[in-house]
Amino acid sequence: MGKSKAQDDIVRVAAETALEVYAKEKQKERRRCADRRLRDTKRLMRNYREIKIHAGDAIASLAEVANDDYEFFHNLMSDGDKIDVEAIVRSKAKSAIMLAHVDAMLRAYQVICYGSIKPEDQRRYRVLEARFLIEKPLPIHEIAERENIDNRTVYKDIDAACEKMSALLFGIRWIERD
Question: Is the pTM of this model over 0.85?
Answer without folding.
Answer: no
